[in-house]
C-alpha cells in the first residue's frame, strides 16, 4: 500500500538558503541547492527535514539509526543497493504532482565506494575518514520552485501526524520576514540565529591570517604523473583518464557560512550542503550524473574546461576556443560512448540516445563542454539499479572505465573520498537525481579538503592540465578566503 502524504504550497519571494536556515534543525538536514537558476535544469531546491532513518556504509558494514538513536550495525553481508531498494519500496508513494521530490532518501555515494564496487585497490593515504555511503530518510521535505517562486512542504506522517508537521513548517516559514534573493545575498547571514558560532559579527571582525592549502603533489610531480598517465595511453592500455589531486588546509570558519560564500561566488545547478555526523560536505557542482523521472533516464557528462576571460572579448575568445577544441570534443565523445554502454545495461533496447553534444555552458570561473544522453529503463529496473550499473561516472574515471580506475589509483597520492562521487536523492516515487561531486569541499576535524582534476589524453599539455585544476579550484579557495601553495 502506498504511503499517504500531505502537502501545502504557497508563494514566497524568499531565497532558498534563507528558508533552509529557518527549517534546518542540526546535523543530517541536507540541502540540495539549485543556486544557478538560469539553466533549464536548475529549477528546484530541496531540503530534507525531520529524519526518521539514517543509513551509512563504512568498514564493510551497514549501519542504521532511527530518529535520535545511535548507529547500530546490521552486518557485513548486506548489499547497500539491495538495502536501499527495500526501504524505498517499503515507503513507496504515488507522486501525481509536478514536484520532483515528495519524500525519500537524500545522501551520497563516495568515489571510494565505487572503487570497492569495482574491486579497485585504492591509494593507501586517507585524507579524512567518513562513511563511503550515507543516506537520510525524511518525514518532511521543503521544495522550492524557482520558476514560480512557490514553496511546497510535504509530510509523510511517519514521525508525527503529517498535517501537523506540515502546518508547523509552513508557519515557521511564513512567520519570518521574507528576504528576496538579491536582498539576501547582500545581507549578513546573522539575520538568522547561527547555531554554530556565538557573537558572529565579532568573530568575523577579527583579523585572521589567510590559510594556505597544499596538494600532496608539487607542480613538477603532478606534471610527471600526467606524463606517466600519457605513457599508459600511448601503450594502448586506455584512451583517456581523469587525474586528480587534493588540496588540504586548516579550516577556521563556519561550515554554513562558507557554503553561503560558495553559492555566491560559484552558483551551480547541482549544489549541496550536507551537515552530517561529524563532518560537512559543501558542493557547487555543474554536472548531473543521473536523473530518473517516470522511467526516463538522463546523464549529462562534462569533458572540456577553459577559464573565463578577464574581459568580454577574451571571454568570447575562450568560449569559442573550447567550442572548437578537437581534443576536448574527442574526450567528450569517448565518455559519451562509455556512458551509453553503461545505460544500455538497464535501458530498453534502442532507447539510449545522445540528444545533445558539444554544448558550451558558462559558470562563474570556467566554461564547460557538455553532452546529454537519455534512455528508457527496462521493465522492472529501478533508479537504484541504474545507479548500480553506472557508478562511478565515466567523466571522472576514464575509458575503458575499470583499467582507467586501476591506473589512476596507482598514480594519485590519496583516496578521493566523496570527491567525484555522487550526491542526490532516491524518491519514494521511484525517481532520482544525482550530481557528480566536483567543485566540492570536505570539512572534518578542523581541516578542509578540495579535490580537483581533469581528463588526460595523449594530446594533453601537462602544464595546461595542471593550470586547469587550479582554475577549477579558484572559487573554492575564494569561499574559504584561502590561497594555495604550488
From TrEMBL:
<dbReference type="InterPro" id="IPR006805">
    <property type="entry name" value="Anth_synth_I_N"/>
</dbReference>
<dbReference type="GO" id="GO:0008483">
    <property type="term" value="F:transaminase activity"/>
</dbReference>
<feature type="domain" description="Anthranilate synthase component I N-terminal">
    <location>
        <begin position="22"/>
        <end position="151"/>
    </location>
</feature>
<dbReference type="InterPro" id="IPR015890">
    <property type="entry name" value="Chorismate_C"/>
</dbReference>
<protein>
    <recommendedName>
        <fullName>Anthranilate synthase component 1</fullName>
    </recommendedName>
</protein>
<dbReference type="GO" id="GO:0004049">
    <property type="term" value="F:anthranilate synthase activity"/>
</dbReference>
<dbReference type="GO" id="GO:0000162">
    <property type="term" value="P:L-tryptophan biosynthetic process"/>
</dbReference>
<comment type="subunit">
    <text>Heterotetramer consisting of two non-identical subunits: a beta subunit (TrpG) and a large alpha subunit (TrpE).</text>
</comment>
<dbReference type="GO" id="GO:0046872">
    <property type="term" value="F:metal ion binding"/>
</dbReference>
<dbReference type="Pfam" id="PF00425">
    <property type="entry name" value="Chorismate_bind"/>
</dbReference>
<keyword id="KW-0032">Aminotransferase</keyword>
<feature type="domain" description="Chorismate-utilising enzyme C-terminal">
    <location>
        <begin position="219"/>
        <end position="472"/>
    </location>
</feature>
<dbReference type="InterPro" id="IPR019999">
    <property type="entry name" value="Anth_synth_I-like"/>
</dbReference>
<keyword id="KW-0456">Lyase</keyword>
<keyword id="KW-0479">Metal-binding</keyword>
<dbReference type="Pfam" id="PF04715">
    <property type="entry name" value="Anth_synt_I_N"/>
</dbReference>
<dbReference type="InterPro" id="IPR005801">
    <property type="entry name" value="ADC_synthase"/>
</dbReference>
<comment type="function">
    <text>Part of a heterotetrameric complex that catalyzes the two-step biosynthesis of anthranilate, an intermediate in the biosynthesis of L-tryptophan. In the first step, the glutamine-binding beta subunit (TrpG) of anthranilate synthase (AS) provides the glutamine amidotransferase activity which generates ammonia as a substrate that, along with chorismate, is used in the second step, catalyzed by the large alpha subunit of AS (TrpE) to produce anthranilate. In the absence of TrpG, TrpE can synthesize anthranilate directly from chorismate and high concentrations of ammonia.</text>
</comment>
<keyword id="KW-0808">Transferase</keyword>
<keyword id="KW-0460">Magnesium</keyword>
